[in-house]
Design brief:
The structure holds two protein chains of two kinds. Chain A is about 40% helix and about 15% strand. Chain A contains five helices and four strands, in the order H-H-E-H-E-H-E-H-E. Chain A has a four-stranded mixed sheet, with helices on both faces. In chain A, strand 2, helix 4 and strand 3 form a beta-alpha-beta unit. The longest helix of chain A has 24 residues, at about 1-25. The relative contact order of chain A is 0.15. Mean pLDDT of chain A is about 80; it is low at about 1-45. Chain B is mostly beta strands. In chain B, the strands form seven sheets. A five-stranded mixed sheet of chain B has the order 1-25-24-23-22, with no helix packed on it. Chain B has a five-stranded mixed sheet with strand order 3-2-4-5-6, covered by helices on one side. A four-stranded antiparallel sheet of chain B has the order 9-8-7-30, with no helix packed on it. In chain B, helix 2 runs parallel beside helix 4 (about 155-170). The longest helix of chain B is centred in the first third of the chain and has 20 residues, at about 65-80. The model of chain B is unreliable at about 1-45 (pLDDT under 50). Classes of the chains: A alpha+beta, B mainly beta. The interface of A and B includes residues 126, 132, 140, 143 and 158 of A.
């Protein structure tokens, strides 16, 4: 009996650990979603102060990494630079895209030798020619924002792939969203 | 349109038919329609009923599958495709009657519903085939055309294509399409894209580039092909010979270098170029030189296409918030909007006589191919299935090739300019961005 309980406990621990791990990997998942709701009471309504939505953490905690020990492929795989995502048929930077690019800018300031290629990508909807132009707009919107944050324009090049090199090939909104992006690639360190 | 306007338009058509060889008149300022009429079945133009009995090849039975069958099938298929003909049912053809010189023989052919008999006979010597074609008017019992062709036995389909071209030219006055080429982009395993060429019917696909990168947007004119390649990482315009030889980079000095369009004489390339994230239409000499910027707005401009005369350029701009098709002079002046209906119009292509444009059109849902008559301003939609794009006209202005995405697969199709006679040319890997070589 005791042994059986122990086994169950271990199993439960494994599940929990698994959850913890998956939570750690999906770092963009908002943790507030898992907070317990306050119990509903039948008492007379009390005005509950609603806190403002959390602001994205100011990207001040970027640490310099020793990029000399890594090749460029590894640097890109490590994900030090993140991509900016866009709405359908838009090249304006969303709030989430600005936060990501602000963090990218911090990292680039810490690593002033790094050169970046910004690829503009689009989802499959619409004509190929228009999407090439739209991808160009997206890549340049990301570049201009990085420059406005103090990154030297000479470190940033842009290229549009339109809808010619999708990250995801299904005809679903989640897939389309993955394809509407400015993708940052380190080309020199 | 007023009666007088209609009469003037009819007179224009007649005049154009009478002096086909001359340069067509430039398109007048259109009055674009603000609604699209859906035409799927199209209006019944009269087709000439022709009887095409099997190639008569006396002798070896071995010729049946190697010569007779491919020749006969190709000739029948070509004529049925041409739009000007209908081929009568071969099962009803009389046996033993070839030349309709007697009333009895002619009646037997007339009984099949045919007005014209295309009688072909082969003489095979070794690996050479000689085909004699006699074309009879069955009512008058007169020989109206006699031609003789010869070639290798391994390509009798080309002899059939040549005869079909001659028949189209004889009966319609327009060039036949049966030896023409369609360029397209073929998606490679792993996502790369290469330029390929195929016969007008989708057969004989041959790859023209092997950049092992992304090569897209083929356009042809003046015996050269222009396209965009990412082989140097950043997209550049390249040109090459029709067989893929003699590839040359065209340095433009700007970025993007998308959707190049060769002028009819091959001397100029219009393209979508970018500086600082603003896409505009540029032109450059096909042999290289300085690029000239033609549009100056902050809006997005793309998809240029030369008019047949080289005096005007069609292009797309999102100046008003949605992509719409405009036309301007080759110097970039006199810009005016052509498409008023729908929320996305792009990829305009000029018909060979300059009187119509085909384009990818969308209001809600999927893209279709629309054809606008620049004289009357009327627009018809010629596709209805799948998501369609990238139209390009055949040299006779009768047909349009385009790509259509259905069930996750994009393939090349052709359709008559009135919406009839759809054909799928390719299958398997995705085939995109067709361009009918003039």
């Amino acid at each position: 009996m005791t042994r059986r309980l122990t086994t169950l406990t271990i199993a439960a621990l494994m599940v929990l650990t698994g959850l913890a791990f998956s939570g750690a990997c999906a770092k963009k998942t908002p943790t507030t979603a898992q907070e317990a709701r306050p119990p509903v009471t039948a008492a007379k309504p009390v005005e509950t102060p609603v806190p403002p939505p959390p602001k994205p953490a100011p990207p001040t905690d970027v640490e310099a990494v020793d990029i000399t020990v890594m090749d460029i492929e590894t640097l890109n795989k490590k994900g030090y630079l993140n991509d900016a995502f866009f709405d359908f048929d838009q090249a304006d930077l969303r709030e989430d895209a600005r936060s990501v690019l602000a963090a990218d800018a911090q990292w680039l300031k810490k690593h002033p030798s790094v050169q970046v290629l910004i690829e503009g990508h689009c989802d499959e909807r619409g004509t190929a020619a228009y999407n090439l132009a739209l991808g160009d707009r997206r890549a340049n919107a990301a570049k201009e924002y990085l420059v406005s944050l103090g990154i030297d324009a000479s470190r940033l090049r842009t290229v549009s792939y339109g809808k010619e090199r999708p990250f995801c090939t299904e005809s679903t909104e989640s897939c389309w969203q993955k394809n509407r992006r400015a993708h940052l690639v380190i080309t020199a360190k | 349109m007023s009666l007088r306007g209609a009469a003037a338009a009819a007179a224009l058509v007649l005049a154009a038919a009478a002096v086909r060889a001359q340069t067509p008149p430039p398109a007048t300022t259109p009055a674009p329609a603000d609604d699209i009429q859906v035409v799927i079945k199209g209006g019944g133009e009269r087709r000439l009923a022709v009887a095409v009995p099997a190639l008569y090849a006396p002798g070896a039975a071995a010729l049946q599958t190697k010569v007779v069958d491919p020749f006969t099938a190709t000739l029948r298929s070509d004529l049925a495709y041409a739009g000007a003909f209908s081929v009568t049912e071969p099962e009803h053809y009389p046996t033993g009657f070839r030349d309709p010189t007697t009333p009895e023989a002619a009646d037997r052919w007339l009984g099949t519903g045919a007005e014209v008999l295309v009688d072909t006979r082969a003489d095979v010597t070794g690996d050479r085939v000689s085909v004699e074609a006699r074309v009879w008017d069955l009512k008058s019992r007169k020989l109206i055309l006699g031609r003789k062709y010869s070639g290798g036995a391994t390509y009798v389909d080309r002899i059939a294509h040549t005869l079909a071209n001659d028949l189209v030219k004889y009966f319609t006055g327009k060039p036949g399409l049966f030896l023409s080429t369609i360029l397209c982009v073929v998606e490679q395993p792993g996502g790369g894209k290469e330029i390929a060429a195929m016969d007008f019917d989708g057969r004989n696909l041959r790859q023209l580039t092997s950049h092992k990168s992304i090569a897209i947007s083929p356009s042809a004119g003046g015996g050269r092909i222009a396209y965009t390649s990412y082989v140097r990482l950043f997209p550049q315009i390249w040109t090459m010979a029709p067989d893929g030889a003699d590839k040359r980079e065209v340095q433009t000095g700007v970025e993007l270098n998308a959707s190049p369009s060769l002028s009819a004489d091959g001397s100029q390339i219009a393209f979508a170029g970018s500086a600082h994230g603003n896409t505009d239409i540029y032109t450059i000499a096909a042999g290289g030189g300085t690029a000239h910027r033609l549009t100056t707005s902050r809006a997005l401009e793309a998809s240029p296409a030369w008019s047949p005369t080289g005096r005007q350029i069609l292009y797309t701009s999102d100046l008003t918030g949605t992509p719409q098709i405009y036309v301007m002079d080759a110097e970039g002046t006199g810009s005016r909007r052509l498409t008023l209906a729908g929320n996305w119009n792009d990829e305009g292509a000029w018909s060979p006589d300059g009187s119509k444009i085909a384009f990818a059109c969308r209001n809600e849902g999927d893209f279709n191919i629309c054809v606008m008559d620049l004289v009357s301003g009327q627009t018809i939609q010629v596709t209805s299935d799948g998501s369609n794009g990238h139209p390009s006209w055949s040299a006779d202005g009768q047909k349009i090739t385009y790509s259509s995405r259905r069930n996750g697969s994009t393939q090349v199709y052709t359709v008559d300019a009135n919406g009839q006679n759809k054909r799928q040319l390719t299958d398997g890997a995705n085939h995109l961005q067709p361009f009918w070589v003039p």
